[in-house]
Amino acid sequence: MRVVPKPWGREVWWAQTDRYVGKIIEVRRGESLSLQYHRVKLETMYFQSGEAELVLGDETRRVGPGDAVTIPPGTRHRLTALSDLTLFEVSTPEVEDVVRLEDRYGRAGGEA
C-alpha cells in the first residue's frame, strides 16, 4: 500500500499491476477534484461513504454509498464532496493522460 497526500484529502493505492490500479480516495467535505478528462484511462468509482456532486459529461448528479460510476476515456468529470467522502477507484494503468480543465490547487494539464 502507498499513501499519497493530496490537497483535497488522500489516496491509498492498494493495487497496481500492468492491467489495473486500485485506490481508496478520501475527499474532505467541501473539496473538489479537478474538472478533467483522460485521453485513454478508463475508471470506475464505487462510493463507500459520504455524498458528492458528480459532474459527468453534461450531467450533474448526487452520488452516495453503494453508487458505482464508470467514466469512459474522454469524459469530462469532477467530484465535489458534500460530506467527508470515501470511494474506491479501479482504473486502467496510470498513464500521464489527464487533461485538467479547472483546478483549485494550481495544477494544470499533465499528471497530478
Compact summary:
This protein is mainly beta. It has no helices and 11 strands.
What would the average pLDDT be, to the nearest integer?
A: 91
Q: What's the CATH first level?
A: Mainly Beta
Number of helices: 0
Classify the oligomer.
single chain
Helix and strand element order: EEEEEEEEEEE
- Mind telling me the CATH superfamily name? Jelly Rolls
Residues in β-strands, percent = over 45%
The CATH architecture assignment turns out to be Sandwich
Helix content: under 10%
How does the major sheet shape up? 6 strands, antiparallel
Number of strands: 11
Distance between the termini: 19 Å
Class of secondary structure makeup: mainly beta
* Shape type: globular
In total, the number of domains comes to: 1
Rg over C-alpha atoms, rounded to the nearest angstrom:
13 Å
Cross-sheet strand order for the largest sheet: 1-2-3-10-5-8
Topology-level CATH name: Jelly Rolls
| pLDDT < 50 runs, ≥5 residues | none
